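User: Just a sanity check before I run the rest of the batch. Below are the structure tokens for the first item. I only need the designed sequence back.
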């Protein structure tokens, strides 16, 4: 497995993945749409294993890249520079933020298939999109730990999927194989595997308006692979 991870997007998920990677002994190349100069503080915090680059430089520097950007910004990813690379699609589709995308609203495509359509020469793998960033950081455990959590993974390319499963293992997670990109719906927002498996049950009487704040404050709850499979079986 590669020892250097590229990350496009330095927000909550991108920054968290960078921290997990550095803690696991990987080097990271970070980038965002605003330029390397805006990443000085984050790089200093992460230490000598981290550096900043432009988005294109990040895409060209490594073979494994995490795309942790809003789905509406996917068309800004450098498809040519990412050609031949494995791209972890950590995006989620929120119409109110990303503007309506007809192919997703009608169910014609999953969001990961939409990303693959833009990155036609890349090997897209859906992962790291279904868990709240604070929980992603705190639930990481060594291999074999009894309270190790699992994250869903989907891809059309089996070797790319295996590469990402190996990365998740290094970052502190087991994996549950959902199948192809077309099978990745259970990890999308509003679906069975999105966020809630890694939290306590919702309090009784909580209103829809109160849920976002509750999620932010909720403690992380380990969700091992067998639990993720149980949820999938119950909703299939």
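Assistant: Here's the designed sequence for the first item:
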């Amino acid at each position: 497995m590669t020892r250097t991870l590229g990350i496009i997007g330095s927000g909550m998920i991108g920054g968290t993945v960078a921290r997990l990677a550095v803690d696991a002994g990987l080097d990271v190349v970070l980038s965002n749409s605003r330029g390397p100069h805006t990443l000085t503080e984050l790089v200093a915090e992460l230490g000598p294993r981290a550096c900043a680059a432009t988005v294109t430089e990040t895409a060209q520097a490594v073979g494994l890249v995490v795309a942790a950007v809003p789905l509406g910004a996917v068309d800004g990813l450098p498809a040519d520079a990412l050609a031949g690379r494995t791209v972890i699609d950590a995006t989620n589709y929120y119409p109110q933020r990303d503007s309506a995308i007809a192919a997703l609203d009608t169910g014609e495509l999953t969001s990961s298939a939409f990303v693959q359509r833009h990155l036609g020469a890349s090997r897209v793998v859906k992962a790291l999109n279904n868990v709240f960033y604070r929980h992603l950081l705190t639930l990481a455990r060594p291999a074999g730990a009894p309270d190790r959590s699992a994250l869903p993974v989907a891809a059309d390319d089996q070797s790319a999927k295996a590469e990402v499963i190996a990365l998740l293992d290094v970052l502190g997670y087991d994996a549950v194989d959902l199948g192809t990109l077309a099978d990745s719906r259970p990890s999308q927002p509003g679906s069975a595997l999105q966020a809630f498996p890694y939290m306590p049950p919702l309090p009784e009487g909580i209103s829809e308006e109160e849920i976002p704040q509750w999620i932010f404050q909720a403690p992380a709850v380990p969700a091992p692979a067998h639990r993720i499979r149980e949820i999938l079986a119950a909703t299939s």
